[in-house]
Amino acid sequence: MDVTSHSIGQLREWKTLAEMRAYLGIRGFAIVVSRSFQKLEDKMPILLAEMRDDITGSPFTREFIVGSKKWSYNGDSENPVFSYHFEDHDNLKPMLKVMQNYNAIIETTYNNVDRFELTEDFAEYLLLPV
Asked: In degrees rounded to 5, what are phi and psi of residue 14?
């Protein structure tokens, strides 16, 4: 005897979703499943609060660097960047990796400076009223 592990209703729902995805796919639409940035709030509230404060004060800045407070950085006054420090955030590098996995930030490191950009979706999320 073959025991089914899913109800008929569940199987029909999956079939309908697969057909809708196929319909949209052949018409050039992409279906993107994204993670909730709210989950990042739960995982790293202090870092996100700092990012929210920064972008609220400078709503068109997207780039940031990470490093130690002991280091100096000579940036371009025409292109301001935010900075986040290891001394303020335990596990900063692993947190940034998680943020990359959530498509909240993109790594743009160059010149031996750990550099990232906020994605536009994440920037808009940070600018929402709390």
From this structure: -60, -40
State the amino acid at position 7 in one-letter form.
Answer: S
Q: Tell me the pLDDT of the chain (130 aa) as tens digits.
A: 556 688 888 889 889 988 988 888 889 887 766 678 999 999 999 999 999 999 999 999 999 999 999 988 877 878 889 999 999 999 999 999 999 999 999 999 988 889 999 999 999 999 998 7
Query: Which residues, at least 6 apart from 24, have a Cβ–Cβ distance to it below 8 Å?
Result: 31
In the structure, how many helices (H) and strands (E) does the chain have?
A: 5, 4
Pairing mode of beta strands 63-67, 82-85:
parallel
